[in-house]
Amino acid sequence: MNMPVRKNETVTAIATPQAKVLTMPLKPTPALVRAAGYAQRIAANVIPPVIVIGVALVLWEILCNKPGASLPPPSRVLSDTWELIVDPFYDRGGIDKGLFWHMSASLQRVALGYSLAAAAGIALGTLVGQSTWAMRGLDPIFQVLRTVPPLAWLPLSLAAFRQGQPAAIFVIFITAIWPVIINTAVGIRNIPLDYRNVAQVLRLNQWEFFFKIMVPAAAPYIFTGLRIGIGLSWLAIVAAEMLIGGVGIGFFIWDAWNSSRISEIILALLYVGIVGFVLDRIVAGVAILVTRGTAKA
């Protein structure tokens, strides 16, 4: 009887080399790329002015912290005006008000005078740009009157209106209207001839030509004049309020000067600059929105 032969199998372990795990670099997502680019743009725009302002404050502190300095250093300005900074809404009656109320009164005068100047300036600029006869008759007058300094109009406006409020609004109006007129007229005169030919082919009436051809084509020029006008308006109201008195940032500065409160003058000038910058940015933003990016920011 044959016995089954048991095969003696020997399992030999074969050592296999361990696979090396490679770490693949993470591919940035589009959202991460956009966020990084946005952060870089912010850093490029924010860091330089922060450094410059910091250096300027340090120099100011060093130069004005010496004995006999005529201007206060930033640290003293901050301590002297701390109440005005933290409580701009106080109202103790009369002209003893916080900076919010002075700024608010000035902005109301600017809003009214500037709105009138914008409406009248665009209308007159359109007339001068569209009519050769009107340009020859009115343009020399505009060129002469626009060189008159804003405050030179104040005595005449006080004599005409006999009140400070309308006199200040008139000074803003007469200061802001000239760049609006001139830039609107230039924009109207520079409308391409092809646009006018298209309007004739389509037989557009005067209103259709104005709103569909003239205003879109001249909008960048018009908003350039409006931006110049808002800056001049803000300059004029501060100067005018120094003379007419009452509530307003201009009179606040003049009253602080008469009381030797130099720190409050410096704080008010800082607020005036910030508000003027914001006004300019607002007009520039409206220009970009209306002209769909044609006007420069």
Characteristics of this structure?
297 residues; flat; 11 helices; mainly alpha
Provide a descriptive summary of the structure in words.
The longest helix has about 40 residues, at about 205-245. By secondary structure, this protein is mostly helical. The chain is about 70% helix and about 0% strand. It is flat, with a radius of gyration of 33 Å. It is built from eleven helices and no strands.
Topology:
Elements: H1 30-64, H2 74-80, H3 82-86, H4 99-130, H5 132-145, H6 154-161, H7 164-189, H8 193-201, H9 206-244, H10 249-258, H11 262-291
Helix pairs in contact: 2-11, 4-5, 4-7, 4-9, 4-10, 6-7, 7-9, 9-10, 9-11, 10-11
